[in-house]
User: Fold this.
Amino acid sequence: MNDIERRAFVKGAAIGTLAFTVGAADVMLTPRQARAQNVPLRTLTADQAATLDAVGETLVPGAKDAGITNFVDQQISIPPEQALLQARILNVRPPFANFYRAMLGAIDGASNKAKGHKFAELSPAEQHDFINLMRQNKIEGWQGPPGPFVYTVLRSDAVDVVYSTMEGYAALGIPYMPHIAPTKKW
Amino acid sequence: MANEKVDVVVVGSGASGSVYASVLAKAGKKVVVLDNGPDRPLTDLISSDIWGRRLKPAGGPILLGGKNPFAYANQGAYAVGGAALHYFAQFPRYLPTDFKMKSEHNRGHDWPIGYEDVAPFYDKVAEQIGVSGDAKAEEKWRPPGKPYPMPPLKIFPAGKVWLKGADANGIHLIPMASGMNSTTFKGRAACIYDGWCADGCPIGALANPLVTYLGEARKAQAEVRGLSNVTRVLTNQAGTRATGVEYYDAQKQRQVQEASVVVLAAWSAQNPRILLNSATDKHPNGLANSNKLVGKFMMTHHIAGTWALFDEDITPHMGTVGAQFMSYDRYAKTSYPGAFGSSFMSAGTSHKTTDYAQSRGDLFGPALAAYMKRAARGLTHLTIFGEDLPNIENRVELISDKDEYGLPMARLIHSFDNDAVALWNANFDQGMKIAKATDAKECWPGKGPVMPTAHLHGGAIMGTDSSNSVTNSYGQTHEIGNLWMAGPCIFPTEGASNPTYTIFSTALRGAEQLAAHWGSVAG
Assistant:
């Protein structure tokens, strides 16, 4: 079997899709599509979503439109053994929804304390500075999972939706070359 | 619910369990293999670092503790085929010195066997499942053996760029011995170097259990039951014989699988947990644990990684996730003043976008975006694994938290000692010297506050008798003759090279012993 034939394992969609609930039905969409279609969130509140959008965009430009919030919301709403989150690999103990609530709560709590506003309401420069301090565990009065760990987990989520999809590879000019491309199957 | 009694029940379907299943099924035994993960077809092995995470555990039943917790989820498995479904398939051997640490250095343990006892099984495994490499070149560091059945894998720029730096430091890099096909092998395809190996290889070029030993076991009528969580080994009233295992099936229903022989091959953390949870009035400390050595001497390699960034396009995404080159030139246990333990080097693995991002974990925002573009063209890595000595305080123990079946979960407690920390630091220094002697534009150590870990060993170590160990050299427990342990749990020391080739080989040695002495073991 030559290379081309073997790569013919590739099938279906060019981008990994997940099951999002639209109306009463499960619809297969990419996180970016889910965001563009304003798919209702299952687990995160509007405030939590705004925080995650803002943190994601600060960590990796493009993460907001790539659907980081829809991605995380869908992933923390399914059984942990089905989840695709880096939190899984970092030994976070399920349920993952509790962990994400704790992370986002810690960020907004610290932001409110230091700046009098939630993270999403800060200026881009303030958001950058906040994340830089959180990364180094230098935010006084921080309450929640350790700041550097929060940074690592949410940065990984943002990297996932921006760079680790097939379109993310294309944007970097890297051939994706899958044996089996991400499809609707998982 | 009780099932029809079988000859042998194997708990775990990874590198060691699959070997036992294959050998015993082909010997005509009725074999059932139980694995807690789903039984995925090869077509489920999607080429994606995101989707590949489904092959790994999500939470318990092992929690982590100690100063240097083990990277459990990253190394573990949630799939039939075990961690060998997503492993890097680097196939270096242990060296003779690894089997004689106590004799040679008065540290750690001796194995009750030597390199010469395992070497024939290295050769057999190579012939059975395929190894690509240059055996002759390895003989600089080890006794001669048979040539590998396939030549080395292809070399790509991300590996080749390390040769200059290694040479300048007197380090000889040779092609990595790999459990991936450089040519077609026994009907399995040759590698196409797309670098998605760690997310599962669906074309069969990588020797994962689904296409090797477990596949052979199935052909010989072994039955594999996925989503089967084994909770306890059951024993007879006298406590002298294992009678089978208790497990919970995919519907969460309790099942009992009776068997003449029980083989625990559920990895170094879960194997001790099962033994400890199997306590009875005859075995109040857990099975095979009257000496209280079950769960002890947990060991893991520490990793000193060095990154190098080149201006030219070295196609970092190409190749295999296993490295292109390896060296044992710092393997002697006293290679560095002030440190103790072996070190094993490998260079030039394929990298994907998650690796690019992780290589500079300090960057975010526009700086990360700019870096990702550079990394996509010019990033490469040198890895040095370092040895962790057996320490009885590094252990698996039961805790009060319960799993969904009501049984105690376990905590894996691990801390590196001063020798390991000194070795880790020395390996970073070595890595940077090599990197600086390449033509890289930039290089930096992948060093943070956390000591990265890989590979898990110990928990039911082998030895000469029950005063110093849980099993004999084959994995047969000293206390219950028809209860066998398989995998890295029986290793008394861990060397510094990737362990899976040695896991396959010691499992093959144990399985053949069991098959040859079936009557006396099974009763």
Summary: The first strand of chain A starts at residue 18 and ends at 22.
